[in-house]
Amino acid sequence: MIAAPTAVPVTGPLRYERRVGHGVHLLACDETEDGRIVEELGDAATADHIAVLVPGNDNYLGNYFNQKRLTRPRVNAQTLLDTMRLVAPGERVAVVVWVGYRTPRGFREAFSRRPALEGYRDLVRLTEFLPSTARVTLVGHSYGTVVCGLALEQGRVSDCVALGSPGMGVRERAELGFGGNLWAALGPNDWIRFFPRGHVGEIGHGPSPVRRGYGARLFETGDIPGHCSYYQQGSESVRNIARIAVGRHAEVTPVRVPAPRRSWDVRAGETVVR
């Protein structure tokens, strides 16, 4: 049985290379302390479109292969890869699961930007390692969106998708220094909407990217449950993530704004919006 993770920060850059380890195709693996792992699904070396999944809290090498966990990044990656293939048949696609930083442990540590600050440069280096001919989309979930926010200015990225974000460390998208497309989604039952939105130094992550005026492009998730279901098979959420990852932007369904309720104003003698 693998011991519970410690709070020792990971130091030292990841070494990116293609090899087989733990029975899977790896781009990097660090087995010191809690461990970091970067897995390739599909052939990223020849792909036209690559989605890089950046998960949030409590993910590390020791629990990475546990398929029953709620976050289960490997299962999510396979679901997204299958959906990308359905959305763009005949095109070459791949998904990379990037557990390449020491993720926060528990709710309290998730308030700090320190784990993201210590790890985001390795995410930048991954985007440089991937083939320059491919469209690269970062897909961050929860605290993973904080890491993505730091990497966007320097990384070679076409699109970034923020799912259930506690904030990306800035007040508006212009501060990210990112010239690509920023997308964001918040499920109807995601508790992250109640996450405190302050930002002082390394504490807190600022407003949600789904906030009006932030500057992200918002898309529908459908009726997915909770905080960890953005990759739910067959959901509108995962279909939209796949459409973004393969460049089918016109097919992405935007957030549905409820139709205004109309009623009859007897005094005015006309229909008005209430």
Verbal overview:
Residues 31-196 form the DUF1023 domain. This is DUF1023 domain-containing protein. It comes from Nocardiopsis terrae. With 274 residues, the protein is of the alpha/beta class. The protein has a single domain, classed as Rossmann fold (3-Layer(aba) Sandwich). The protein has five helices and 13 strands. It has helices at residues 73-87, 106-109, 114-129, 144-151, 236-245, and strands at 19-21, 24-30, 36-42, 49-54, 93-99, 135-141, 159-163, 181-185, 199-200, 203-204, 217-218, 262-265, 270-273. The strands form three sheets. Strands 1-2-3-5-4-6-7-8-11 form a nine-stranded mixed β-sheet, with helices on both faces. A two-stranded antiparallel sheet has the order 9-10. Strand 6 (135-141), helix 4 (144-151) and strand 7 (159-163) form a beta-alpha-beta unit. The longest helix has 16 residues, at 114-129. Mean pLDDT is 90; it is low at 1-10 and 261-274.
